[in-house]
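>> received
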Amino acid sequence: MSAVVETSSRVPGGLPGLTRLDHIGFTVPDLQQARDFLVDVLGCEYMYSLGPFQDADGPWMSEHLNVHPRAVMRQLHFFRCGGQAVFEVFQYEASDQIPRQAKNSDIGGHHVALYVEDLDKAVDYLRSRGVTVLGDPTVSRGPSAGQRWVYFLAPWGMQFELVSYPHGKAFDRERGDAA
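>> returned
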């Protein structure tokens, strides 16, 4: 059986007015640890904080955020990364909170991919900072040919990825979009 590769992501009549990704939100067990990692290791810019937030008597938290109605959002921090991506990082306390970090294979599993110009230099840097890098860089094939990537873990176990394709990916070259 062969895999089918879809090569177009533009859908006419999609979400009206959609222009770009605004931010990525994720929850961590310790905001100070996350701030140290995001700023001191990854080089993100700390922007500002909000909170705490809680609704002691009503359903606001569950209706608006899909969390336990008595959950407490201790604080959230905003970070800019690479001059564009914004991370909205939360620390919650909730009676039904699952303290295990989701794997990519779990429903809701995820990772954050960061583009770097020199993958080998970035991997050496992460290792020198004691960051767990998962294996050695992988060379992509097919529509992603020209790309190399590797996963690494934040101190709380969240999965990040470094990607690099300085001469573009095969998909982009075939369409004439290569940088």
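>> The chain has a mean pLDDT of 91.
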